[in-house]
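Here is one chain, start to finish.
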Amino acid sequence: MTSDLLPFTGEAYMRLNKLTEAEHWYRESLRAKPDHIPAHLTYGKLLAIRYPAALMNLGAILHLNGKLREAESNYLRALQLKPQDVITQSNLRKLWNIMEKQGMRTASP
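Its structure:
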């Protein structure tokens, strides 16, 4: 398989929720082409699935850039992995306040 196809193989496995296989192919891709930026980005997405701090940080970046729905989704995923994270809880409450002021529906209970 050519090195250009390796990250796509990783992405295909990720979409199938076969995370171990996806990680293998992302690593192979980066071994073949260490400077391949798309492979780094998609591998980062895979790693974020497993790390609540990465999801919370992604949520915060999206939040600050006005991508409120995407921020909410990432905060909620972070809280699924680490429900007692007070920083993520606080960020999510602030986000919900902004969303409600803008007339947006939220996933709040």
